[in-house]
Write a sequence for this structure.
């Protein structure tokens, strides 16, 4: 039971029904029981009913529903909750990673401009780490592996290379664009872009 309660399987919507977070069922039950959020009773695409905690406890558990046992009987685990008072969509900068760096640079070597196939590029530290260069958005670019090997621990100028554009941190984006349906929960599909 605790495994079910502590996996991030509940999508959080703001009061405008925009996806803003993913939480555990334990957190969702706390929010529902204090009227911070209501759960969506979802049955197909045509039935989306906001349901308060007192009514949620009385809902029948359907075949295929995840549920937990309580002293009062089984309670359905919500898949989507709606916050009662929060209306904003938080903004967030993507985490620094090879995948996000690849996306920022469009999969192009930032020295040659050549479009790279997966596996042909890697992270280059403009100011090499051996010289105190940070692993950050502002000091890293995607480079062709051969170019990066040639550059080694030199600066671009020392290696006879020129950056196409200075590396910068990407702009902040609405968190809605960063949420992923990693568990394949069908009830989330109407609320996440691209699913």
């Amino acid at each position: 039971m605790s495994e079910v309660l502590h996996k991030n399987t509940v999508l959080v919507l703001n009061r405008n029904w925009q996806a803003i977070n993913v939480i555990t069922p334990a957190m969702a039950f706390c929010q529902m029981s204090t009227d911070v959020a209501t759960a969506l009773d979802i049955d197909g695409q045509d039935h989306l009913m906001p349901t308060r905690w007192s009514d949620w406890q009385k809902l029948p558990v359907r075949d295929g529903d995840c549920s937990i046992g309580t002293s009062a009987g089984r309670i359905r685990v919500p898949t989507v909750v709606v916050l009662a008072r929060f209306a904003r969509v938080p903004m967030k900068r993507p985490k620094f990673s090879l995948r996000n760096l690849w996306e920022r640079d469009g999969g192009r070597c930032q020295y040659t401009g050549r479009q790279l196939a997966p596996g042909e590029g890697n992270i280059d530290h403009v100011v090499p780490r051996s010289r105190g260069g940070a692993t950050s958005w502002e000091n890293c670019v995607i480079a062709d592996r051969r170019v990066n090997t040639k550059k080694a621990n030199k600066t671009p100028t020392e290696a006879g290379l020129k950056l196409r554009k200075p590396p910068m941190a990407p702009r902040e984006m609405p968190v809605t664009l960063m949420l992923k349906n990693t568990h394949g929960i069908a009830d989330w599909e109407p609320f996440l872009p691209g699913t």
In short: DSSP finds five helices and eleven strands in the chain.
